[in-house]
């Protein structure tokens, strides 16, 4: 019971601090409830978000920092990390092309709302909405240009 009280106090403190503070993606850390705030919170700790997917009540996020990769699940209502799995990252140290946040910003500027963003094996796949329509996009990671659009 005392343990639960300490956990509640710790969680309350993180909620009050908000996602602006640099946080490590560990259980209970509050990163945010949308792609922009989660990416910003991770960036503060040196992580780059490579995957964002929002489902009913849950957000799935992958991020990389140097030789580490972390896969997380966040509570969609609070932005708190409920599952975190960290492991060594395979592949090159740096990823070629544009920064993921710059690509997401460009898509927002074009009127898209990103629902899922994933960079794997040198490809970027995005599921987004724009003007009430759902789209599947293939993005050139070097230029950020939309290579392929498919209305869903």
Short description:
This protein is an alpha+beta fold. It has helices spanning 2-17, 35-44, 100-109; strands at 48-55, 58-65, 68-75, 81-88, 113-120, 123-130, 133-139, 146-151.
Task: Characterise the protein shown here.
The protein is of the alpha+beta class and 152 residues long. It folds into two domains: 2-88, Roll (Nuclear Transport Factor 2, Chain: A), CATH 3.10.450; 100-151, Nuclear Transport Factor 2, Chain: A. The protein contains three helices and eight strands. It has an eight-stranded antiparallel sheet with strand order 4-3-2-1-5-6-7-8, covered by helices on one side. The termini are far apart. Mean pLDDT is 81; it is low at 1-21.
Beta-strand portion reads 35-45%
Based on CA atoms alone, the radius of gyration comes out at: 16 Å
Structural class: alpha+beta
- Order of strands in the sheet with most strands: 4-3-2-1-5-6-7-8
Which spans of ≥5 residues are poorly predicted at pLDDT below 50?
1-21
How would you characterize the largest beta sheet?
A: 8 strands, antiparallel
Number of helices: 3
Topology order in helix (H) and strand (E) letters: HHEEEEHEEEE
- The CATH topology of the largest domain comes to Nuclear Transport Factor 2, Chain: A
Secondary-structure map with pairings?
Layout lengths: L1 H16 L17 H10 L3 E8 L2 E8 L2 E8 L5 E8 L11 H10 L3 E8 L2 E8 L2 E7 L6 E6 L1
Which keywords apply here?
152 residues; alpha+beta; Nuclear Transport Factor 2, Chain: A; eight-stranded antiparallel sheet; 3 helices; disordered N terminus
């Amino acid at each position: 019971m005392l343990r639960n009280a300490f956990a509640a106090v710790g969680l309350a403190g993180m909620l009050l601090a908000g996602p602006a503070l640099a946080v490590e993606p560990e259980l209970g850390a509050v990163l945010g409830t949308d792609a922009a705030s989660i990416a910003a919170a991770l960036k503060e700790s040196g992580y780059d978000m490579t995957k964002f997917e929002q489902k009913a009540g849950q957000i799935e996020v992958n991020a990389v920092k140097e030789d580490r990769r972390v896969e997380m699940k966040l509570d969609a209502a609070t932005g708190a990390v409920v599952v975190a799995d960290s492991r060594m990252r395979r592949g090159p140290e740096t990823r070629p092309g544009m920064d993921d946040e710059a690509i997401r910003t460009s898509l927002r500027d074009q009127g898209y709302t990103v629902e899922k963003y994933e960079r794997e094996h040198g490809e970027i796949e995005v599921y987004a909405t724009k003007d009430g329509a759902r789209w599947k996009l293939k993005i050139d990671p070097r230029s950020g240009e939309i290579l392929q659009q498919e209305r869903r």
